Amino acid sequence: MKKMLSTLVVILVLGYATSAKAQERPQFTVGLKTWIAIWDETIAGGFDDQSDVGVMAGPAFGARSGDFFVGVTWLTGTFNFEDQPISPGVHAELEWERTDLDMILGYNFHPRIGGFVGYKHIDVQQTTTVVDTTGVSAPIISESDFNAFGPGFGVNFNYPLEGTRFFFTGSLSYLFLELDSENRPTEDFPGFSFDVSGAYIFEGLPASATAGYKIQTAKTDDSRVKEEFSGLTFGVSYSF
Q: Which backbone phi and psi does 6 adopt, to 5 degrees?
């Protein structure tokens, strides 16, 4: 399947390049996106928790030439999990910093529907602080990290509300991720991603604002690690 996706990427890249030459000028979009989310993580052998609400934010870039389109989004944010008890008077405070990079390349085979292939990379920096509330020991801080990365494919749609400046967009994709964590071999970590948004185009400006919902899930084949990352999304963009 990954070889098939690689072949599709090559075909789409060649098609986009050809289309770009045929068009006088591609359309570009820059913007800012946020994802206000809750992170639900389960790791067999001792961790099953849900984070406090956290905010991921970062830039987004897109380009379109004819029916071909590309997109890149980079989001980062910090999430705090509930304190984990270790012994009477001692607990661990968990802070995870997450960075997501998403890249897609696609083609609109209908004015309202398109298909795409892409690549996703998730980087997580984990900081654990062991706190002794009895005052016997000073806090102990340790750091670790894990990454998930791989290709994916999906479909997207758009639907304008006739006679208004509002429209809806959404996408559904399947991710062929691999999980790379410390002291363990790389594992398959497949999952799904779904999002839907409402958008408004400002009058007199080539700009728009969006608000929606996004959920992303993944788990290892043996379900040793399972995660769900979901919440509200907001964004603004400018086209030129």
A: -60, -40
Structure tokens at 14: 């060649």
10-48 core/surface letters (b: 16 or more CB in 10 A; e: else): eebeebbeebeeeeeeeeebebebbbebebebeeeeeee
- Let me know: does 101 contact 120? Beta carbons within 8 Å: yes
CA 216, CA 148: separation in Å to the nearest integer?
13
Can you tell me the distance from the alpha carbon of 40 to that of 24, in angstroms, rounded to the nearest whole number? 47
CATH of domain 2-239: 2.40.128.90
Report domain extents, the chain.
2-239
pLDDT tens across 144-192, in order? 899 999 999 999 999 999 889 999 999 999 999 999 988 778 899 999 9
> What are residue 202's phi and psi, to 5 degrees?
-70, 140
